[in-house]
């Protein structure tokens, strides 16, 4: 695994909105300053480059990078970006799982730039051959994420995992058959967020913190890998040619919605993807889970919104957009129908409980 050294490049305020060209970014590399020193780090050592990190303090509230060993690294980042900047790094033979609460940024791998605005999600990135990456967070944005990095080429051998249980795009990346770095965004389960939050306020200090973060690394890595396993039947939106019962297909429908709740497929598209009629999908889903497909999707949106409401720096409009509502008023109406209170009331007092202890909701 090669993580290179991370550099911060300060950008001119009037230029930053248009800096999506790799050539322009490369021309500004001499303005960068280093903030990590991976090449000199020892096992179980935080590998900051303190002189550079001191310059970054104005933009970063919490930045932790721990080298567990030559194959494993965990990074915790909680930053309010107060100035236009780009983060440059050269990486190779690495697979990373980034657990995010919400992030808006542009990211460049080689000559390809993607604009991203993500809610609760896991971003999986696999890089076989070395490539320079640039991340440009939006000015004023609060970034809050945890990343685990591990060596790609030896991952399955080290863990004793069968590579054939994982998506074809990952196997092709390892074999060098793809066209370059691959990135997939997977909407995460609500339970995954509870695994991440302690990283920002760890329950231990001193030398024990390194041991605790090492344990957290393995916890998050296995969650990321399991999420990929559950995606194995949906490479590029198509089912693999393996027989499955209707009950299995209905369960797969729920997993698709769990990951894509913010922008879910239509009922017609979901049924076609699963090889079921819309009638069989609707009746099977209601029979299995006690609710309709659309109501289940609605509850996933509201569940995600409740988690985001715990982050006071996010506005109601931002949360609405993150969970898939262009109109904040429509979001507020839907939230009240499901949760029994407005988003603002939920933020102030916590989720309202029904008499049996559950948050009230709608079941058709």
Describe this structure in words.
This protein has helices spanning 22-27, 50-56, 155-159, 168-175, 190-196, 208-230, 246-260, 267-274, 278-289, 293-309, 316-322, 328-339, 343-349; strands at 7-10, 32-34, 45-46, 62-69, 72-80, 85-91, 94-100, 103-109, 112-118, 121-127, 131-137, 142-151, 182-187. With 364 residues, it is of the alpha+beta class. It has two domains: 7-233, Jelly Rolls, CATH 2.60.120.10; 243-349, Homeodomain-like (Arc Repressor Mutant, subunit A, Orthogonal Bundle), CATH 1.10.10.60. Strands 3-4-5-12-7-10-13 form a seven-stranded antiparallel β-sheet. Helix 7 crosses helix 9 (278-289) and helix 10 (293-309) packs across helix 12 (328-339). The longest helix is centred in the middle third of the chain and has 23 residues, at 208-230.
